[in-house]
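Re: that backbone. Tokens:
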């Protein structure tokens, strides 16, 4: 008959291999795991840098709560996995756990992550962009905020104007030292603010805190309006000094 296969070097006969070499807590398998599976999944392995915020891929970020000892505020439901002794609460400092999160007036629920461990965050496959502030400031559309260090100074602002669904666009301004994770539909573009910069209010993601955003008149920007639609859109005009920027996403409602 066929000779039994010799165990791999270092492997105890009859003991199953973990899915990844050296990975603790592997689930016992009925047969030794082949090198092919490990090789195929190698490129998806967790990225560990020792930093507080680590981008795992374009749609997933990890925050290490043991680094910096500061809690994180994140969108409720954005946690996809956590490890360690992590506590979750539902009161955002200064918000009583909620802020108005988008132009339709719906509320954005916040969860407070504290303790020691790692929390992985994502939301609906959107692209995620950790932005580190070092004493500077940025304005982010509240709809595009995924998470942020609680140590950052943050406040909610309203941009009011005729034609905006719900009557106002809600913006969060962050300032200080820490990271805010911005989410976008698709890959964003960063542009300098000029005297004639106008953007669809749903496509705007973020801009320099020093720049001024005001609601302009409704302008027909779309070539093919859907049935029952006027094709008009509420636009924001941006004004600012040289060096000011605006971030837009390839998406509008």
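Recovered sequence:
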């Amino acid at each position: 008959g066929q000779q039994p296969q010799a165990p791999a070097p270092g492997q105890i006969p009859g003991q199953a291999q973990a899915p990844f070499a050296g990975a603790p807590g592997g689930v016992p398998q009925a047969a030794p795991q082949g090198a092919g599976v490990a090789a195929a999944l190698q490129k998806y392995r967790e990225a560990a840098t020792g930093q507080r915020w680590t981008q795992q891929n374009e749609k997933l970020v990890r925050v290490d709560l043991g680094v910096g000892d500061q809690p994180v505020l994140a969108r409720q439901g954005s946690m996809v996995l956590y490890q360690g002794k992590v506590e979750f609460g539902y009161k955002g400092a200064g918000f009583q756990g909620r802020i108005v999160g988008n132009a339709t007036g719906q509320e954005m629920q916040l969860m407070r992550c504290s303790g020691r461990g790692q929390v992985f965050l994502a939301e609906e496959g959107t692209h995620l962009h950790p932005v580190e502030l070092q004493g500077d400031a940025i304005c982010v559309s509240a709809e595009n905020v995924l998470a942020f260090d609680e140590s950052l100074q943050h406040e909610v602002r309203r941009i009011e104007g005729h034609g905006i669904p719900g009557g106002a666009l809600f913006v969060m301004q962050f300032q200080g030292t820490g990271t805010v994770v911005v989410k976008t539909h698709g890959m964003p573009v960063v542009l300098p603010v000029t005297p004639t910069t106008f953007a669809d209010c749903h496509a705007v993601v973020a801009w320099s805190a020093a720049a001024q955003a005001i609601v302009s008149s409704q302008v027909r920007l779309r070539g093919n309006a859907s049935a029952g639609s006027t094709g008009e859109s509420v636009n924001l005009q941006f004004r600012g000094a040289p060096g000011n920027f605006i971030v837009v996403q390839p998406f509008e409602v």
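Residues 48-223+230-248 form a domain with the Double-stranded beta-helix fold (CATH 3.60.160.10). The CA atoms of residues 33 and 68 lie 38 Å apart.
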